[in-house]
Amino acid sequence: MAKTVEIHLKVNGKNYAGHCESRTLMADFLREHLNLTGTHIGCEHGVCGVCTILVNGEAVRSCIMLAAQAEGAEVTTIEGLSHQGQFHPVQKAFHENHALQCGFCTPGMLATVIDFLKTNASPTEAEVKEALSAVLCRCTGYQNIIKAVMAAAADMRGEKKLGALADV
Amino acid sequence: MSEVSGRFIGKSMLRKEDQRLLTGKGEFIADLKLPEMLHAAFVRSRIAHGRIKSVDLSRALASPGVVYAIAGPDLAKLLPPVPDTQLALPRKWTSRVQHKFLNPQQPLLAYDKVRHVGEAIAVILAESRYLAEDAAELVTVEIEPLPVVVDPELGLADGCPVLHEQYDTNLIGDFSVEKGNVELSLATAPHRLKRRFYHHRYAAIPMECRGVAAVHDTRTDSITIWSSCQVIHWLRREASTVLKLPEARIRSLALDVGGGFGVKGHVYPEDLLIPVLAREVGRPVKWIEDRHEHFMSSCHSRDQTHDVEVGFDDEGRLLAFRDEFIVDCGAWNPIGSGIAYNTAVHLPGPYKFDHFAVRSRIVVTNKVPNAPYRGAGRPEATFAMERVMDLIATELGVDPAVVRMRNLIPLSEMPYRLGIPYRDGEPIVYDSGDYPESLRQALSAIGGLEAFRERQKAARAQGRFLGLGLGCYVEGTGVGPFESATVRIDPSGKIYLAGGACPQGQGMETIFSQIVADTWKVDPKDVVVALADTSVISIGFGTIASRSTVNLSGAIYNASEVLQKKVFAIAANILECSPVDLELRNGAVGLVGVPGRELPLAEIAQAARPGWDNERPEGVSAGLEETAYFEPPTVTWAYAMHAALIEVDAELGRIEIEKYVIVHDCGVVVNPMLVEGQIHGGAVQGLGGVLLEEMAYDSEGQLLVGSFMDYLVPGASDVPHMELKHLHFPSLLNPFGVKGVGEGSAIAPPVVIANAVCDALSHLKVEFNSTPIKPEQIARASWA
Amino acid sequence: MKPAAFDYYAPTTIDDVMVLLRRHGSDARLLAGGQTLLPMMNFRLAAPEVIIDLNRIPELAFIKVVEGRVHIGAMTRQRAVEFSPIVARDLPLLHEAIRMVGHLPTRSRGTIGGSLANADSAAEIPMVLQVLEGEVLVRGPNGERTIPAADLVLDAMTTSLADDELLAEVRFPVMPSDARFAVEEFSRRHGDFAIAAVAAMLVVKDGRCETARIATAGVSSFSSRLTAAEGALEGRAVDSGTIEEAAKSAAEAVEPVSDRNASEEYRRHLTKVLTARVLKRATESRKLA
Q1: Residues 6 or more apart from C73 whose CB is under 8 A from it?
Q2: N or C: which end of chain A has fewer CB within 10 A?
């Protein structure tokens, strides 16, 4: 029946094979079928960015993507960002710079930032603000998120923190 | 009690909450999965006012996956409306303030009339939300339209349609407060001015919508209710009435909550209906509000019209302030007079004047109900007073900063008795703070007033329009009636804290770990915090009104004081000394001046146990747990001064904020990093409110906002860099000297922007006395 | 906000798409990037019986230069256009404008063909198509045809494509190496649909404007060329005087729409302001390499 589809994809390094309704949104597929509730739903019309995940390494809004469209894709969600208990540099920067309060937009922020930094490893603050405008946050007022992204970018470029320099 | 050390209070400790939230291991209401769970979807009214003629559920009931459906008319036969959910007004208030209130009770589903677009008429339970929505489309509702009320002033006119026919009026609240003799003072003032100010309707819009889930356990005949809610004890109280179950048979809790800002701060019909349905069908039920629903059923806020008249002298000193304001409260009034009364008493602000009179009228209209949103009536008040300050300045040709300085209550007059009561019924006393200093620091942070005025002049000569906007406020925080805390020494020696507060991102697990750590001389990681759950503490109040740090810290102090006496008594018994020779250190109790001679708290917990081999002295009861309440004497007053430097692109009407400065005082700061985060967040919400956000209605009561394409929430590109400065005048009203900070910074930005734009375009003599302030308005003002 | 159920097909060739379109006609919607269609379906403002997913058709995604024109397959992601060296070199106006289309995550899925077929009145890509005088290649039951920019969009959200046709490719002439260009957009927030946008390309030879192409988005129901403004520049020097004239003509000639975001009068005013700013910036822009 064309109202259901079979899906084969990789999520956070694990292979999945299953089926769902053709209308099942990717966000719901992750949350309900795969029990990966770390991806949140904020608007279901592709504006708030809270549901953003990485599909084949690119940030994508999962609420306006059909699960069927993820056939054969490699998907990374927030659950797959840390490795062996270690934070990804972006997660670390968010933690150290208090870049989250309620945490609801955070999954979308992390995916968006990780993708953005791949396209621009040395962004200016203005470029960071432009990139972050893809995800809405109601708690932080963005000040600390901007700081966190600049810190993560520096960290990923291998630069020492200013504090470390002061110790020398 | 052992003196509370400052090892952790005052430190920007990183948050405990982050680990789970950063790794996708948080649990929000939408994440909850229960076996056999059903999903609810509501059928909501598409018209603003009408009589329900019929609701046909037959096609919906036959739709695949549907298990149950009910509409308002049938539900009304089974259930009462939402119990009187308005916070009871204290007798001290009711006896002091002239008032008249009517309280229409909102049914759990509309049954006789619909009174706003979005009001729920029927509910469907199905195996998935997809299937429930399919069925909802098949429900046929016949509504006979009625004329609509969208203008509260017209809603007061004779012959106007009435929403709640049992009252024969749309006026459901009316009160007055005054001091001095406003009439006489106005009549004799050297100068007068009169203006209307309008603060428009906008809303909290947290990133997480609302949600409720419930399950009925037949074995114990008890119900568990999960809700994305800021006041879970209040929810349990209402549920007890509706479900006809004792509170002891109801557990109400919130999981991780994705932002509240006040909109989740009361009990909604869905909070009560979902548990009823869960018991009715014998399966767990979950309802997750979607964003489209959120705009039309989660409460809106602000929406006040103020008619102000003031008298002042040649120096710009305020002599008299009179305000008659109307609150458009939408179709129902869940919080009663809370917001309006906040507005009334926050109007005077940090200013010294003797003659004040305010009358407030609360009017129902065919819109979504009005409930508190960060600031809860204070932004509207601050808008009126701070525009007045600038208008006085313009009238006299004096700098607005100078006018303010002449009016601000000086440090020497603190504590300052305002002369009117707060909503707890207590006389308002601004307990501590230096308002003039906050203005001095704000002006210094923008590079100095003189220097700016020079820049402004030079820029104007080149056709560029720079403006300075000021806005300040005082804020009553930490309102009662109380908060609760249970402090318990766990057998492991860790300290367990349970409290009535309900977090939505503030970092409470971290903040209260810091407070308990300093109170007990343990490490914050050895503090276990449990909040937002009626099963961890049986009486609690919840988190609204910037009250939790103040009130829960007070309760922690009170519980700890009693518990430490006990701990020392037991330790003294074991160590064979006097309790006065003992102190807390390193998670243990030790002899003062004798390092190494210590009893770990775990051992004391063991010794305190009831029964054989306990080591309690005579007269000391078993166990190491204490529940206490903090009942604040009254509110403690935080304050801030905001200043913005802007440039107006008059051609496009766009504003660029060059600098936004906030000088803020919330007394003793527990975690500076978290406090700054609150200030950032509130300020951006305030800026969003004035520049971007709008809950617009048309003349038929149709809500013109259905998505994030219509309702513009500020994004990262829309925010200026903010500079924060802090003053720290401790509160005199609680043991830790803290003041609330959750709401404050959302209060001033709207008027700061209005003042800045007026200042930038002062050569055009334009006035911006209402919000929102949109580019088209600014462009048009420049054409004139 | 869950979509209604539908039958789903994911063909792998254009021919298969044609078969499906013929079979299902107006019951079917083509799914490209989904950044517009899926939100509408989640709101149930659109509830097609059949979805034909174009995302598994490799032959629809490419960027190549053929005889002086850049050919871009309809299913080429906006993101690929953004990072394409060919586009940066040969269509720098498109390169600049594409970064205004939504946000990077929407460009990861959104396609250039989808934007053109959707013909939102505020979209940037149809405006650029106008300025660069591009054309689209359309596949139908009877073969293919091309539609020039001027004939593609009939009204808001309405193109001249038939129900059984597929927009398969868009072609832009390589911009002249001495072209000057700029695009300016006014929206309430970054990434929002334009309340008004103006894009322009000028070729100036010996101090005289040889070619002027100016188009808007967001101002009227669909993107159109501001021929009156172009006329004010052609054959003349491009200086502050002629720019002001062109901006005035542009404002007079447009038929602005009025909505909650902006009144007719304000859009007209924005057209004037943005046209002037675009032309000024275009004349100051560096020459192409």
Answers
A1: C59, C60, C61, C62, C63, C113, C168, C169
A2: C
